[in-house]
Design brief:
Blueprint: H1 6-38, H2 43-46, H3 60-69, H4 87-117, H5 127-153, H6 161-167, H7 172-180, H8 182-195, H9 199-218
Helix pairs in contact: 1-3, 1-4, 1-5, 4-5, 4-6, 4-9, 5-9
Length: 224
């Protein structure tokens, strides 16, 4: 942002990321829990995980990843597949509910961004000027972070949500064999993240989604 040093810009970015992370991860996990509850599993509800209180969902390592890299994870919502009528299918639906909730939040963020762009920026640099700029910057951080969380969690590698969808198409015996090694796969995934090997893929997918959503809004006469 014009008028800010690089240090001030980075500080402001992290300051905006904190509330964005709290909202994104909380909604993500509650969406998992709600989907499971609607499909017959009451575990999340019984354990108080349908709450919008961020403290019930946050994982310290996942939050650090979100703050530093823009993608991460929360404390997984407990799910008991015995409550599902169709375990593999319902598990896949429950899994995809999280990333979809972040996609919806991204739509909301981009909508708010487009509304802010309609507000004339005061020529005099004062409170109103900075308030508009900060509001714009916050919604930008908010929707980009939600898009990153959506894309990251759709990667078909356990324990990410995308793996639940991908594995649901495999035979049951193969499904549960892979799930036995989930912890080891997760450790390998963290190593890959640390090396930055997924950065290019995630950034490309996030940019594509961001451009696609913006183009949808530009089709509307109000924003075009």
């Amino acid at each position: 942002m014009e008028g800010l040093s690089e240090f001030q810009f980075r500080l402001l970015t992290y300051a905006f990321r904190i509330p964005a992370v709290l909202i994104a991860l909380t909604v993500h996990e509650v969406s998992h829990g709600l989907a499971a509850y609607k499909l017959g599993d009451t575990t999340a509800k019984d354990m108080g995980r349908l709450s919008l209180n961020p403290l019930r969902h946050l994982s310290l390592p996942g939050c650090i990843l979100m703050l530093l890299f823009g993608f991460g994870f929360a404390k997984p919502v407990p799910i008991n597949t015995r409550g599902f009528k169709h375990p593999k299918r319902d598990m896949a639906i429950t899994a995809v509910a999280g990333p979809l909730s972040n996609l919806v939040l991204a739509f909301i963020g981009i909508f708010l961004e487009q509304l802010i762009l309609l507000i004339p920026l005061p020529k005099t640099v004062g409170f109103a000027h900075w308030a508009i700029l900060c509001a714009f910057f916050f919604v930008y951080v908010f929707y980009m972070l939600n898009l990153s969380l959506c894309v990251f969690n759709l990667i078909p590698i356990p324990p990410l949500d995308g793996s639940r969808v991908f594995l649901s198409f495999l035979p049951t015996n193969v499904y549960f064999k892979i799930m036995r090694y989930e912890q080891y796969i997760m450790m390998a995934l963290f190593f890959v993240i640390w090396l930055g090997l997924l950065d290019g893929v995630i950034t490309g997918a996030v940019t594509f989604l961001s451009d696609a959503i913006h183009n949808l809004f530009y089709l509307l006469p109000f924003f075009g």
